[in-house]
Amino acid sequence: MPVQLNDCPVEIVLSMLSGRWKIPIYRFLYKNNKPIRYSELQRHLPSISKKILTEQLRELEHDGIIERKSYPESRPRVEYRLSLSGRSMIVFLDKISDWGERYILSEKRGMQQN
Amino acid sequence: MPVQLNDCPVEIVLSMLSGRWKIPIYRFLYKNNKPIRYSELQRHLPSISKKILTEQLRELEHDGIIERKSYPESRPRVEYRLSLSGRSMIVFLDKISDWGERYILSEKRGMQQN
DNA sequence: CAGGATCCGTTTAGATACTG
DNA sequence: CAGTATCTAAACGGATCCTG
Q1: What angle do CA B106, B108, B113 make, to 5 degrees?
Q2: Does residue B52 register a pLDDT over 50?
Q3: What mean pLDDT do residues B43-62 have?
Q4: At B87, which helix (H) or strand (E)?
Q5: How confident is the model at residue A104, as a pLDDT?
C-alpha cells in the first residue's frame, strides 16, 4: 500500500506544482495573460518533449490551475490559460520568489546573518 | 548532459522543499522551536526509514534550512533545528497554506467562483 | 544512538516514432 | 496541429542488515 499524502495543505499545494516544467509553464501563461496555443508553449520551452508537455498540462488542468479549450477546425487548435484560482497562486509564488532572491544573495555573501 | 535547473528563484526554492518528508520535518522543528534529536524525529514520523530520514536531513542541512549539532558522548546524540533563514520560510509557507485551505474549500463546494 | 551500505520497486523525465 | 504509444534511463523512496 502506498504511503498516503497527509492532509497538510502545504504538501498538497506543493505536490500540485511539482514537475520539471510546471513553473515554467505557469510563468509563461501568467506573463502573457491570454490563451496560449500548445505549439507556442512547445516553442517557448525548447527542450521539452510533446509527451512531457502534454503530461504536465494534463496535471495542471486536473488540479484546476489551468483551463484547456480545443477548437476542432481543419487545423486543430488547442489553447491553454490560467484559471482564476491558478492565477491567484501568484500571491504565494511572489513570496517564494522574494525569499529565494534574498536567500541567493545571502549565499553569495557567505551567509552573514542577513 | 542533465537539463540544468534554470535560474528562476521559485524553482530553486521549490526544489529545496521537494522530498516526501521535508515539510513534515520542517513543521515538527518549527512547532517545537528548539533542538530536536534524531530519535525524536524518527518517533514522530513513524513510517520513515533511517536512510530516508538521514537523506532528507542532509539535504535540508545542505540547503541551509536546518542546522545539525552532534554531541559525541558515550551515548551519541545529534540535534537538529531550523536555521534563521529556514525559520523565515514561514512567511511564504503560511501563504501557501492559506491558499491551499481556500482551494480545498472551493473544491468541496464544487468550484463556484470562490 | 545515529547513522552507512546494499538492494529493489516505483515514479518521473526524455527520446523516438506514429496518428486523427 | 496536438497529441499517443513505446521504450529507456535516472531519480526517489523504502526495506533490511551492518557499525563506530
Answers
A1: 30
A2: yes
A3: 96
A4: helix B84-87
A5: 86
Task: Tell me how close the Cα of A94 comes to any Cα of chain B, in angstroms.
Answer: 8
Measured between alpha carbons, how far is A92 from A42 in angstroms, rounded to an integer? Answer: 26
Per-residue model confidence (pLDDT) at position A1: 41
Burial of A105 (0-12, 13-18, 19+ CB in 10 A): exposed
b/e for A18-40, b at 16 or more Cβ within 10 A? eeebbbbbbebbeeeeebbebee
Q: What percent of chain B has pLDDT over 70?
A: 91
Nearest CA in chain B to A48: B3
Nearest residue (Cα to C1') for C5? Answer: B51
For chain A, the distance separating the N- and C-terminal CA atoms, rounded to the nearest angstrom, is 45
- Cα-to-chain-centroid distance, residue B15: 11
Using a CB-CB cut-off of 8 Å, the residues of chain B touching A111 are 64, 85
Q: Is the pTM of this model over 0.70?
A: yes
Helical spans, DSSP H, in chain A: 9-17, 22-32, 38-44, 50-62, 84-87, 90-109
A18: closest CA of chain B, how far (Å): 8
Distance (Å, whole) CA B49 – CA B21: 11
Distance from residue B45's CA to nucleotide D14's C1', rounded to whole Å: 14
